[in-house]
Design a protein that fits this description.
CATH superfamily of the largest domain: Metal-dependent hydrolases
CATH architecture of the largest domain: Alpha-Beta Barrel
Radius of gyration: 19 Å
Distance between the termini: 21 Å
Number of strands: 18
Number of domains: 2
CATH topology of the largest domain: TIM Barrel
Number of helices: 5
Oligomer: single chain
Mean pLDDT: 96
Order of helices and strands: EHEHEEEHEEHEEHEEEEEEEEE
Length: 304
């Protein structure tokens, strides 16, 4: 079953206007399966949320993390239960902090990499120079409050360039909540998990094989059958999602982008039509960024 993860959220333990309880209430009201608390440079909200969830009969699950907020960019760790000091932060060698976090069992991501930064929001733009992505689990390709073209589009393109160059890295989305904002038609992260599975372990497993969906509410899935590959649509019933009457699937590889009509709900292609790496995306109508609905897991050959 597909589970919705909201991986980037703040409370009044850092700079948000909502309390830990209000964050829980907001996530439950919007039917999120799991959310992360990722306050800026503090884990003080973690025991508050743990206490509420332990004492009350809540359905939603929580990941306990933090967002490293530096002058050179933000590193969001939706799972960081053991605080890792960041005095090793180095703009030209950020691998030191990523490696330390991973050794502590953290899940690590680059947050809103192309945010405006100076002079509007100092430090929000990711200016660290990563040369080794071994310990980077994902890039937050969609930060919902940020402008679509000016900030999120470059993030998507950066992730795609890395993937097509051979880097094994996932794509995720974040609400970056600081208030009880409307999450209708916003992008969330989805994984294929189980109803009673451990939320942190299932997220780690999905990221390890780059099997995440970034979606407004309709997923495009794929599976192989002999010498062909079949794509299907799956409505995950995200509150506020408005289905489209016309769906376009695009496949991006090193040579360019191809478009296919998926309005019927499925598509079958011969495997020989695919290159070694293909990036599937789903649009509601014309394949323009404003109509983007879903970024699906990357297809790599040979497909196991």
């Amino acid at each position: 079953m597909f589970r919705r993860y909201e991986l980037h959220n703040h409370t009044d333990q850092s700079d948000a206007k909502i309390t830990c309880r209000q964050l829980i209430d907001h996530m439950e009201a919007d039917s999120a399966d799991c959310f992360a608390i990722t306050d800026h440079n503090t884990t003080s909200g973690q025991p508050i949320i743990r206490k509420i969830l332990a004492e009350e009969n809540r359905k939603v699950k929580c990941l306990y993390g933090m967002e490293y907020t530096t002058y050179y960019g933000h590193i969001v760790c939706p799972v960081l239960e053991q605080y890792v000091p960041w005095d090793s932060i180095n703009r030209r060698n950020p691998e030191l902090l990523f490696e330390a976090c991973k050794k502590a069992g953290a899940v690590t991501g680059v947050a809103h990499p192309f945010s405006y930064g100076d002079p509007f929001a100092r430090g929000c733009r990711f200016e660290m120079e990563i040369t080794d992505f071994t310990n980077v689990d994902y890039i937050e390709v969609i930060n919902n409050p940020e402008p679509l073209h000016e900030v999120n589009e470059p993030g998507i393109l950066w992730w795609e360039d890395l993937v097509l160059s051979g880097v094994k890295i996932s794509a995720c989305a974040g609400m970056d909540l600081h208030n009880t904002d409307d999450m209708s038609m916003m992008f969330a992260t989805y994984i294929d998990g189980t109803k009673d599975g451990d939320a942190a372990d299932e997220l780690r497993s999905a990221l390890a094989v780059q099997k995440t969906w970034v979606s407004r509410g309709m997923l495009v899935t794929w599976e192989t059958d002999g010498d062909s590959i079949r794509f299907d649509l799956c409505d995950v019933k995200k509150p506020g999602f408005i289905p489209s009457g016309h769906y376009i699937l695009t496949l991006k590889n090193k040579d360019g982008i191809r478009e296919f009509d998926m309005t019927s709900g499925f598509l079958v292609l011969p495997l020989t039509d695919l290159q070694d790496t293909e990036i599937p995306k789903l649009y509601g109508g014309e394949a323009v960024l404003e109509n983007l609905i879903c970024i699906a897991p990357v297809i790599r050959k040979p497909i196991l």
